[in-house]
């Protein structure tokens, strides 16, 4: 199987862009002739851990290495290098711990490393995704690491360092990869593009690099997919990804946080989005992480609104409007000025009254009615989270005959509850719980004590919310 990602697998240390903190000490050790007995490479996927392990293996065994003042590279042409490159060297063993994680695999390994290398200078054992090993296998590996042989070198790699036992870690020299910066990914991409004769617009190159989220492999795979269709343009990248790049998401998020509807519409219009649901999901994730530490309640609201928006956008005839309205609903509540102002202007019949503090407390409401009201709020929260979230911030203030007097803080809350579809939903619920003939009378009381909205997640929304934060395979 040949792909750009494998064609452009780095062959020498110098090809490992942006990983000087790993490459330099390895080269120093090679120059000194004292390579670490066990090396543990750790970092995110697609950063070049496996490539480093293979280059290191060749550098160790190379018969004609290129050594300079501060660099040490395998020649990649001698018999040793070629046998490793062709994966025919018996002395170099590469194990994927994801599929060979048991004790027997490691026992076989132990027997193997008991002997000196047959042809090459070193016996090199590369264990990829080492954190996947079973406990027994780790114990067996530890014993092997505790009895080092001068001619055996272990190179372990993991994306999840915390799952590697401390006993193993302490036996290894640890090298951490830094997430590839956009600039270094751009370098790698333009090098591959030149060699493959793929033409790419500079802006598209930046966009591709940004969307690869720090992974060279992802970036090269995207380049390959797009390059096969001719010149890579910003539009073709957008089309391929379906969602705007991180910077565009950040731009939308900024407009949301500033409650700036004008720039929000502009950013969205320029973003040429095709997969609106995915865009909303990315936005939800982005804003959630930006908000959760400072304002967890608002972060929770963002998840709820975003989840609902993403579900809606999937089948909506006008998904761009769903995106826009989701963004507006994600704005910080105290700054949602534009919408309520417009609605208030068209709703002069909703009375807005400032009540003295002592009048704010609910009047003696019969306990059974109060219980039924609480039941109503709970059921609406479960069945219609968005209406429920508004309702949960209201207060049943008093009852008179068959009228429920409900105080809300904002006029637009009253409007929302007193209009379809909420009106009918509430009406049906009232008939079911209170009986025929009951009515709700809303009053807007700006100094209503602020209460934290209680939101109930319906199981469907909860599952979707979880899905947003579960990285897809
Ligand atoms: Zn060589």
Q: In summary, what is this structure?
A:
By secondary structure, this protein is α/β, with parallel strands linked by helices. The protein contains 23 helices and 10 strands.
CATH-derived topology of the largest domain? Rossmann fold
Mean pLDDT: 82
Overall number of strands: 10
How large is the count of helical segments?
23
Largest sheet: 5 strands, parallel
- Can you tell me the CATH class of the largest domain? Alpha Beta
As a percent range, the share of strand residues is 5-15%
List low-pLDDT spans: 336-350, 452-458
Shape: elongated
List all distinct small molecules, including ions and cofactors, that are bound in this structure. Answer: zinc ion
Strand order of the largest sheet: 4-5-6-1-7
Please identify, by name, the CATH architecture of the largest domain: 3-Layer(aba) Sandwich
Percent helix among the residues?
Answer: 40-55%
CATH H-tier superfamily of the largest domain: P-loop containing nucleotide triphosphate hydrolases
Q: Gap between N and C termini, in Å?
A: 21 Å
State the domain count. 4
Structure classification = alpha/beta
Oligomerization category of the chains in this entry: single chain
Round the Cα radius of gyration to an integer and report it.
Answer: 31 Å
């Amino acid at each position: 199987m040949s792909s750009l990602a494998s064609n452009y697998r780095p062959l020498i240390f110098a090809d490992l862009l942006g990983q000087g903190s790993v490459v330099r000490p390895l080269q120093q050790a090679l120059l000194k002739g004292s390579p670490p007995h066990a090396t543990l490479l750790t970092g995110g996927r697609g950063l070049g851990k496996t490539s480093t392990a293979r280059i290191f293996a060749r550098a160790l065994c190379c018969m004609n290495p290129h050594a300079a003042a501060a660099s040490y590279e395998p020649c990649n042409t001698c018999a040793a290098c070629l046998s490793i490159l062709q994966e025919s060297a018996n002395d170099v063993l590469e194990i994927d711990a994801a599929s060979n994680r048991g004790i027997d695999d490691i026992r076989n390994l132990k027997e193997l490393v008991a002997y000196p290398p047959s042809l090459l200078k070193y016996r090199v054992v590369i264990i990829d995704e080492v954190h996947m090993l079973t406990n027994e296998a780790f114990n067996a590996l530890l014993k092997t690491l505790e009895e080092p042989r001068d001619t055996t070198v272990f190179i372990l790699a993991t994306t999840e360092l915390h799952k590697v036992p401390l006993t193993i870690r302490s036996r290894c020299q640890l090298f951490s990869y830094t997430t590839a910066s956009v600039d270094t990914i751009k370098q790698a991409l333009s090098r591959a593009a030149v060699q493959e004769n793929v033409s790419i617009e500079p802006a598209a190159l930046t966009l591709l690099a940004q969307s690869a989220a720090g992974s060279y492999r992802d970036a090269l795979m995207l380049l390959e997919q797009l390059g096969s269709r001719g010149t890579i343009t910003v539009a073709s990248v957008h089309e391929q990804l379906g969602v705007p790049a991180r910077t565009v998401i950040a731009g939308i998020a900024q407009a949301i946080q500033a409650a700036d509807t004008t720039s929000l519409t502009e950013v969205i219009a320029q973003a040429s989005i095709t997969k609106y649901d995915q865009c909303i999901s990315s936005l939800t994730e982005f804003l959630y992480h930006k908000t959760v530490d400072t304002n967890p309640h608002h972060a929770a609201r963002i998840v709820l609104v975003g989840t609902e928006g993403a579900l809606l956008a999937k089948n909506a005839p006008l998904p761009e409007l769903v995106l826009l309205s989701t963004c507006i609903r994600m704005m910080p509540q105290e700054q949602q000025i534009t919408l309520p102002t417009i609605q208030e202007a068209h709703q002069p019949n909703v009375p807005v009254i400032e009540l003295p503090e002592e009048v704010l407390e609910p009047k003696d409401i019969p306990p059974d009615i109060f219980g039924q009201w609480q039941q109503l709020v709970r059921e609406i929260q479960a069945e219609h989270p968005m209406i429920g979230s508004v309702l949960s911030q209201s207060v049943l203030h008093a009852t008179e005959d068959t009228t429920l007097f409900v105080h809300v803080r904002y006029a637009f809350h009253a409007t929302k509850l007193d209009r379809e579809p909420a009106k009918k939903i509430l009406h049906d619920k009232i008939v079911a719980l209170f009986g025929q003939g009951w009515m709700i009378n809303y009053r807007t009381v700006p100094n209503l004590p602020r209460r934290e909205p209680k939101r109930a997640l319906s199981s469907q929304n909860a599952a979707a919310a979880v899905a947003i934060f579960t990285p897809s395979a």
